[in-house]
Amino acid sequence: xxxxxxxxxxxxxxxxxxxxxxxxxxxxxxxxxxxxxxxxxxxxxxxxxxxxxxxxxxxxxxxxxxxxxxxxxxxxxxxxxxxxxxxxxxxxxxxxxxxxxxxxxxxxxxxxxxxxxxxxxxxxxxxxxxxxxxxxxxxxxxxxxxxxxxxxxxxxxxxxxxxxxxxxxxxxxxxxxxxxxxxxxxxxxxxxxxxxxxxxxxxxxxxxxxxxxxxxxxxxxxxxxxxxxxxxxxxxxxxxxxxxxxxxxxxxxxxxxxxxxxxxxxxxxxxxxxxxxxxxxxxxxxxxxxxxxxxxxxxxxxxxxxxxxxxxxxxxxxxxxxxxxxxxxxxxxxxxxxxxx
Length: 341
Prior knowledge:
This protein is an alpha+beta fold. It has helices spanning 7-16, 36-43, 49-57, 90-93, 99-110, 142-149, 176-187, 268-276, 289-295, 326-333; strands spanning 23-26, 62-63, 66-67, 79-82, 114-117, 121-126, 157-158, 167-173, 192-200, 210-212, 216-220, 226-230, 239-249, 252-261, 302-310, 317-321, 336-339. The longest helix is centred in the N-terminal third of the chain and has 12 residues, at 99-110. It is elongated.
């Protein structure tokens, strides 16, 4: 029997590959502040997450020659010992940079205007339909797109997230120190995040801003898809809702409103509006499918239009804004508008 002519080169390649070795990594200023597990998951591309946690808990990973926990915070100058693991080969890592992928990334980038940029921050206007990161069948998200189209940036991380179908202001950090500081501001409620939305029905606000304080609980459907519901045992959540105007077309009314996040739970605004009885247009998870078909809704009508925070380096108070998307304007033109009382 003739041997497979393709198998020999592959075997030779395998034999010639140098064995995995112990790695000693010195933590620099841009890595400082990370948890050990997050640092290793980013460094050891191609290694299963379960394996990373196993080698930490077994003591094979050392920080300054001592055992460490997954939650250990790394500081500049720490030396991390990583046992022999098979990380992704450079050729595998470069696979995401194929001509086709680069072309797709450029296309996404062209639809993602930069709202603000300096040495510490990159703030973009994310389009609806683009995930903030890859995964679950999504090859390219905002972060992958920008890492491909902006290879000169040695550090780039998401400060926060937006749902895939939500558009608007998205903050990214170009420095580890900026990321840590902005996370502190978010934790301590020192940021201001506001969204425009179009919801079904006439929301009667009255003289006061509506304070929606429904506790939220995350759960999974049978197919593994994530959902959120109002639940007395859930986490406390708070949305301030300001009605701008209501619009009518035949027997369908819609409301333009601004939602200000006081907490940042998953799908918070969407579930709060559903509980209020005024689901957001185009919400395939918490909305009204029959009405979406009637008004020909093509997207989720939720837009992060403002982010207010203190610049992590200069201390300047910033308010970054994104204009109302064209889809909102076109939808509203189909309705007769009346200013909210």
